[in-house]
């Protein structure tokens, strides 16, 4: 779960322009030729769009799938993740974000609480695996781009490069400490739509850490309405602090 929460950031590089002087002291018109963005700048430009509209994000990895619907502007969203267990059971993790409050429910395994657990504003550590839809990057795409080490175009819509998963601040905890040194240059591939939006990204984690799985994120449902509501009060308990601490450090 900690690795699937590794998601992305880079500030978009902008071009500046100015005025050149003439002999009579009056400003001369500036003739500007738009500079073609580098591969990294193009990825950053596309990633910034993901926080400006509603979006769907699907994640696929061996034994793990998730579906999210996000409304970054409205500060609401939902996520459902399914994790296959060694005993054949499936752990289901559900998240709801409504304004500042977050609700989590675990199901599919014996002994789990049946109610939603409410996580109040301020109870989730910034940048932790539980930080669903952080204010500065709800989609996680900007954080992902910031972690890219290098990138190049491979045709019109494909980008290749390496990414340092340790830069995101989410690749940590007990689950990943032993792999940190090998996660600083992980190959990735991004495919963009004709409009320039990301279609999908694959992160080839097994090429550097065979013990871990390939990650694939797909982006879709641009501009479609997102329905996210707090569960009924009778179906909600406040999350114990001990549980929050354990999940953050996992």
Written account of the structure:
The model is unreliable at 1-28 (pLDDT under 50). The strands form 2 sheets. A 12-stranded mixed β-sheet has the order 9-10-11-12-13-3-4-5-6-7-8-14. A two-stranded antiparallel sheet has the order 1-2. The protein has helices at 39-49, 141-146, 241-249, and strands at residues 20-21, 27-28, 55-61, 64-71, 76-84, 90-98, 101-107, 116-119, 148-153, 158-163, 186-192, 198-203, 215-220, 236-238. 28% of the residues are buried. With 250 residues, the protein is mainly beta. The protein has 3 helices and 14 strands. It has one domain (38-249): outer membrane lipoprotein receptor (LolB), chain A. The chain is 10% helix and 33% strand.
Q: What is the compact description of this entry?
A:
This protein has three helices and 14 strands. The protein has helices at 39-49, 141-146, 241-249; strands at 20-21, 27-28, 55-61, 64-71, 76-84, 90-98, 101-107, 116-119, 148-153, 158-163, 186-192, 198-203, 215-220, 236-238. The N and C termini lie close together (8 Å).
Helices and strands in order:
Elements: E1 20-21, E2 27-28, H1 39-49, E3 55-61, E4 64-71, E5 76-84, E6 90-98, E7 101-107, E8 116-119, H2 141-146, E9 148-153, E10 158-163, E11 186-192, E12 198-203, E13 215-220, E14 236-238, H3 241-249
Parallel strand pairs: 8-14
Antiparallel strand pairs: 1-2, 3-4, 3-13, 4-5, 5-6, 6-7, 7-8, 9-10, 10-11, 11-12, 12-13
